[in-house]
Queue: 2 jobs
Job 1
Amino acid sequence: MRLNQAVEVSKKLEKARDSIKFLFQEKYEERILPWKNLIRNVSKKYKISTFQAAIKLTEDRGSSIFGNDGMTVLVILSAACDLVEEKI
């Protein structure tokens, strides 16, 4: 992926995360924490990056307890954005 593509993807992810923050309001941190922990665990287990772990979770969501909706994907990606920003 070229740098300009990466920047555009990053902007879209941040916008999606901001939407989830708006929806969850003061409960954002509480609702996102389990997803952050899950992403960390998947990343560690498979020795993959934060976003690779998030993508793996979104791919697996249809056949698991996570549900099969777009909101779940946005929440998972929001958690991944937060984790990446925590590392910066």
Note: The first helix runs from residue 3 to 24.
Job 2
Amino acid sequence: MLSENRLNNLKDKTLEYVKEHHIKHLVFSRESVSKSKKLLNQLSQVGVKIYVYYVNFQAGRNEKYAVEYKLGSVFGMYADDWNFKAN
């Protein structure tokens, strides 16, 4: 699984790099999802699954927020406090 920190160094060659190295899973911070929608869509189209972390960083931007507003762009998330029975 490759993180966005590594991808940031690739700049415009991210899609090429991911294809060339057969990368299937990437992780992004929740804050980066909105900034990277075009890239995330391109990556999803080639079968890459995107996961989000840093979910509880801001008040009101918790796991429930990520599910409601980010899961269209991402495949899954790292969750500290998700209550499967209540949500």
Note: The chain has a mean pLDDT of 76.
